[in-house]
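To: structure subgroup
Subject: Chain for Friday's discussion

All,

I'm putting the inputs and outputs inline so they're searchable in the archive.
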Amino acid sequence: MIDQFLRHPGIFLLSVLLALIPTIVWGYYFYQKNTVNKKTALVTFLAGTLSVVPVLFYQFSWSHIPDISIHYYIPQLIQSPGWYTIGFFVVVSEIIAFIATLVSALAVIVVSLVTWTKGVVGNVFRAVTEEDSNFKIVGLLIAIFATLVVYSGYTAAEALIITVSLATLEEFVKHLVVRFVDDNRLKSIDDAIEYSILVGLGFAFAENIFYFFSAWNGGAFVQIFIFRSILSVFAHVFFSGVFGYFYGMAHFATPIYHEEVHKNRHLFIRMIHKIVHMKGSVLFHEEKMMEGLLIATLLHSIFNYLLQLNQIVFVVPFLFIGFFVLSYLIDKKEDHKEFKFVSEERTTGKIHEMSVDY
């Protein structure tokens, strides 16, 4: 691919310009609904374009570094089932998620240094140490799902594993960018949604460049351009926006949870809180993070699998419904409420007064 870029720089530049068209159109539609800081929005978008790097590295590993690719171990899972094989499979999945975290952190730090954006480097280190359990959970989810699919005897097991593992990794990486860049800049749940949408746009923009460049000499370029400009770009916006909603809930877990307690909601969390002696707001935070990851991954996996089956007739209504769901979340009155306090430490539930850093 790199050799092709060097041989055809003009086509590559044209692919970039074409990829910008749907990005600008969708970006204008969603960005005009919010007044987020312009520089922060630009940095978030640029970091989002680099969020494809961990995913590309993972795909590169399939053929060049098979020892860290879960697909390399699928035949072993089928041929030699056992606790040792499953355990090794889980460890590899954890390594993948850990590497994705490190690469994402490095990409965000590079963008922040180039754009002279203050506060990001410190936020990256705080996020990595504070949310270190997230990459472990992501790796575990990939491994568990893949193992269940393999042992279910599903005939298209490998295709389904690839679909779900990539969807999980992509949604996890896109969220990491929002967490690293914008965590200390959020004032409301709507901010979390909007910044997540910007990362989704950045990811789709970078992905479209590769697709447009690769399909340039093919006979179906126009169809690919239309499909990816309308459906694929919005798909990333939709999945990221949904995750952003739950991330916003988790970000303001302490004040939101206290409001929920007053309304006698989340009785289950309060019961677990008494059993495990963990603060209810911390449990609420973890619950919302897992909801966001699982729902975004599920939606992404459905989209990818419908594409693999070439069921475009179902993709269109699926995303049509997604458009109204995302619009509802953006317009929801409660999501625009600005909080004066935010969780200082997700693992303890401590809070401090908001000080948004631009």
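Points worth raising on Friday:
Confidence is low (pLDDT under 50) at residues 352-356.
The two ends are 37 Å apart (CA to CA).

D.
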